[in-house]
Structures are given as C-alpha cells and as structure tokens.
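User:
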Amino acid sequence: MHARARTARDTISVLREPELLCAWLNRAIEWPKGVRVRSAGVNRLWAGRRKRITFELALDIEQGDGAGAYMLQGRLGASIEAHREHKAARIERGRLAGIRIANAAMDVAFWTPDRDRKLPVVRQLFDEQGLREALAGTASATLLGFTTHAPGDHPGVRGDLVAYRAGKRCVVSVRSDAGGAESGVYIKAFRRPPTAQQVDELKRLGEELKERSDGLVRIPSTIDHVPDKRLVVTRAISDDQEPVASAGEGLRMTARALRALHGTVPRVGPPAHTVRQEFQTACRWVSVLKRLGYGEFVALRDLAMELSRLMPKTGPGDDTLIHRDFYGAQLRIAEEAIWLTDFDTLAIGNAEVDVSTYVAHMLLDSGLTEDAWPQAEASARTFVEAYLDCGGTVRREHLRFHLPCAIARLGAVHLVRGFPADRIKLFWRRAREFARLDRSIV
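Assistant: Predicted structure:
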C-alpha cells in the first residue's frame, strides 16, 4: 500500500486523490504482465448502516492491445473481516476477476464478484461448466440448451456481468442460441434471497400490473427460484430495448406506468419503507460527506434538520406498492411495452417516494444551472400533472418532505461522483425552497 495510506483517514484521502488511488491499486494488486491501472476514481458510493460505505471504482486499465474501462467494488467501514487475500487479477470478457484484498488497520476491503464471500455461487456463473452446475435440473437449463448439448459442445454460453452490489447481490446475463433462436436469462444471486412465497407473489403482481395497464407495463417473468443456491432466474428483455424518453409522449407513458404500479395490490406484503427510513438515508449521507472530507456536508446537514420537522404522519390505507428507485434508467421500451427493471426493490410506502425520485432525476438531468432550472421545473410539473390525470394522488404535505429527501440523496451521490459542487448546492437550495413551499410542482 502507498506510504500515505496507513490509517482509515488516510484511506479516505487516497480514495479522493486519483493519483494516489492509481498508485495504491498498482501496488496492492498483482496485475498480468504488461497491464497497469492508468487512472482511477470513485464512480459510485452507497451509504450503509453502522458507518459503512460501499464504493465502486472506475478504472482505466492499460493493456498490451490498448486500454479498457473496468469496475472494482469495496467497502470502507468498521469490522472488516480478516481473511486470505487474493491479489492476482484477471481480465475476462470486459470484467475484472480474481481480486479480494482487505486491510483491517486501514478499515478497507475491495473485491471482484467472483471473490465475494457473501455471494459464493457467483464464481460459477461466468463459464459453461459452472452454469451447468448452478442451474442443474431447472427450466433455465433447458432454455439455455444444457439438456440438449453435451458439456463443451455448447454454442458459446457464458455469463456477462450486468450489475453488482458488493456483499448484497449480483446480476449476470446469459444468452444462448441452442434452440435455433437466441434466448437469454438474467441470473440474480442474493445474500438474502426472496422466499418462495415472495417469488410467487412477484409473478402474480407482474400479471396484475400487465392487466391493469392494458399491457403497457411489464416486469420480466420469473423462470426459476433456486433457494439452495440463493438464485432467482428471470427472462431477459429483448436486445432492441430503448430508454423511455422523459418528454412528450414518453413522459405520459411513464406517468401511466407509475400509476399502474401504485394501483397494484400485493397479497403478500413486501417490506415496509417508512417516512423515517427516507429521512435516515438523508442523514447517513450527511455522515458520509463529512467522513470523506466534503465541506458541503454542512449544507446537507441544514437541509436534513429542516426535513426533521416535516416528516408526515401516515395511517392505515395511506401506503401503496412502490418501486423505491423509479427513474428513467429503470424503464425500457421493448415489444411495445414499458419494462420495469430492478423490481427487487418493491416495497410498501408513500406513492410520493416514487414521484419524488423521478422528479429529482429530471431536475438533475437538466444540468442544475439557473438558466436551465425553469424548463426542468416545467417538465416536472408536466409529469406530475400526467400522473394526476391517470388517477394518481399526490399529497402536498408528503411531497414537500419526500422531494427534498430525494434531492438530498441524489445530490450527495453525484457530488461524490464529481458533479460541480456549486450546482449541487443550488440543487439543495431548491430542495429547501420546496420544503418551505416557496416552490411547488403541484
């Protein structure tokens, strides 16, 4: 490790300094001959409980045939487990593999999905033999051609990493043309997998959501639940998918999709997402920014203090089914329908959580300049009006709390990713104006 990275505080300094971070990674990891990290930076951060911070590093790695972009995740926080280290890195199909390094004194660990001790099955999902073993006896094995092709005689079936959250879950895409036409699945590995009852309920909700929206809104169908491997397999969305536009007809379609979701009634209750949890998330980001040395934490702390006095009270019948992370990137158009991704986050909570999350992303996408703000706010009003026209309900006292909460969280995330601090401060100032009802989108 770099000489300056001796303590947990110095580790934070390394994460914030690209040159130090690059040197640290080149020394800590055994790279293949001719391979080295050319540049590195923090791409994403998740504010966890008990002062843990999960981070994702974006790496530009120089190789013999050029350079490529890769991701590496890790955790900064208390109780880093001591264990055998794996330092020999591999580069396979656009992903890093083979790495798991921890240093309790530095309070930091980082690893690749195949070395995640909380998700041991993941290392089987990137080659044919491992996939055969993980999916043995399932409908997915038949769909992918494992029952009709002998081992080693399969037409190029291998897993590609889609999404990863260190220690929690991993999503791998697998495609095959064994049946004459290409078919594909998403394999999701969980640390805490859903129960059989929850999987069955999700299937039912998908059918109800499709019916309520006249076929407009769909979620990928579940093919297999493999509880002993902590896996859920769903059908992949077709490759011709496109993001839903956040303007014009796309905005109205999104409003219809959200209203259909909120009108769907679960029989087996998903976990509750409370007003206090929303507030606690904003507070965790205050702690994260302070720990990382961002002076902007003061502005976020002031916003959080204002929100503490605005938490709305909810009673029986006030909550509904919500997505919790509803924004443009989670919506795809394919097969003349809107496909809702990341549906594992479904919960019971205030409908204003989803409305606020979508609006906060719309405002952020404007670039957060004074000149762009009026148009962004007008687009946000158009979305809310379209949602109301579909039969949705937006309670003013709930929106004045949830919208600033969404802005608080989103602003902190993008500040760490390098978004200009002055624009994030404008974002948070606008959030306080929404909280005080000096501004409104309803």
